[in-house]
Amino acid sequence: MAFPTETVYGLGADASNAQAVARVFEVKGRPPGHPLIVHLPSAAALDEWAQSIPEAAQVLARAFWPGPLTLLLDRRADRVPDEVTGGGESVGLRVPAHPLALDLLAAFGGGIAAPSANRFGRVSPTTAAHVRSDLGGDVDLVLDGGACDVGVESTIVDFTNGAAEVVRSGGVTFEALERVLGRSVGVWLGDREVNAPGTLATHYAPRASVVVVERAADVSRAAAAALREGSTVVVLAPDAIDGLPRGAVQLEPAGDDRSYAQVLYDRLREADRRRADLVLAVPPSDRDIGRAVRDRLHRAAAATE
Ligand code: TXA
Ligand code: MG
Questions:
Q1: Which of 95, 97, 201, 282 has the smallest count of CB within 10 Å of its CB?
Q2: Can you tell me the distance from the alpha carbon of 168 to that of 188, in angstroms, rounded to the nearest whole number?
Q3: Parent domain of 16
Q4: Which of 37, 83, 85, 139 to mutate to test the pocket of ligand 1 (most atoms within 8 A of CB)?
């Protein structure tokens, strides 16, 4: 079953049922060994799923749940099947902040293991229609909770090596994490892909190639060059860009950082619907939620290279 969260739609299964979890991998086309996040009804369930929880993790759970934050902790092996953790000893846990997701979790009572409800390697879905277009009849039920409010995935903080380390930027900003923890947090710099297989560069990419253009003033020249080579070009930017060459299409401007995050995946899907060869993307700021958007755009661009 697919369900909305505040970040992106998830494809859920009973986290305690190895067979149900295996079906998620099948529908998503995800290779085995990629761990899934377990969604919990409330922070009170944390101890049932994880053990040796550092105080800092408790602090973050209290501050940000329900919300777009995933904590990687030592799993309780009696509760968390290997299928969920990819065979490893850590489990990703979060309490989503979407009323439908919380109702579902409260009614169910247990944990729901859920990756984003897209086919493996594709852009995450932020509407029920995205889920349908990706998974079609392979998903029995899609709960429609409207467009996701955050629009990019949860921030993942790894506690399994002792100190808090951000392994994926997302809906909870670095600034907010540091404010709550009262100190700086480590940032994963891309050398530990083994630990979070889904953070490979090829994720979060549309079929079209993506090139990040830092300055809006440089877009027209880049578009003209690509058009000369016969590419179909679309432009994604916070604001309207004047003077684009004929033939380059600007997608509806993404707006401020928060709005950019909300529409990012829909715009990348639109580029594919338009059969664009190339997306020229002007990123948002490098602050707050803008950081997560930049991260996804750079991953999409790296998948292109
Ligand atoms: O916002 C989100 O986090 C969404 C919604 C549905 O909750 N979920 C999501 O799940 O983005 P997914 O599976 O598409 O991405 C989760 C990432 C993957 O890269 C996975 O490898 C990593 O988190 N992950 C999950 N559990 C892990 C664990 N125990 N150890 C290391 N990485 C883990
Ligand atoms: Mg995903």
A1: 201
A2: 8
A3: 2-187
A4: 37
Please identify, by atom number, the ligand 1 atom nearest to the C-alpha of residue 7: 1
Please report which residue ranges of 149-228 form alpha helices under DSSP H: 174-181, 219-228
Lookup: tokens for 54 = 């550092």
- 153 C-alpha to center of ligand 1: Å? 8
In a domain, 194, yes or no: no
- Looking at residue 192, its pLDDT comes to 42
Q: Angle at CA 237, nearest 5°, toward 236 and 241? A: 105
Kindly state the DSSP code that residue 137 receives in the 8-state scheme: G
Cα separation, 257 vs 18, in Å, equals 39
Smallest-distance ligand from the CA of 3: 1
Residues 6 or more apart in contact with residue 142 via CB below 8 angstroms: 1, 2, 3, 9, 117, 128, 131, 132
Rounded Cα gap, residues 62 and 41, in angstroms: 13
Mean pLDDT of residues grouped by 10 in the chain (305 residues)? 98 97 94 93 97 96 98 97 95 98 97 96 94 95 98 96 90 94 70 44 81 97 98 98 96 98 98 97 95 94 80
Residue finishing a domain among 187, 222, 256: 187
Q: State the pLDDT at residue 193.
A: 38
Q: Do the Cβ atoms of 280 and 241 come closer than 8 Å?
A: no
**Distances 117 to 154, 168, 277, 288 between C-alpha atoms, Å:** 14, 18, 25, 25
Is the residue at 264 inside a domain?
yes
Q: Within 6 Å (CB) of ligand 1, which residues are found? A: 5, 7-8, 10, 34-37, 68, 70, 72, 85, 88, 90-92, 96, 114-116, 153-154, 156, 195-199
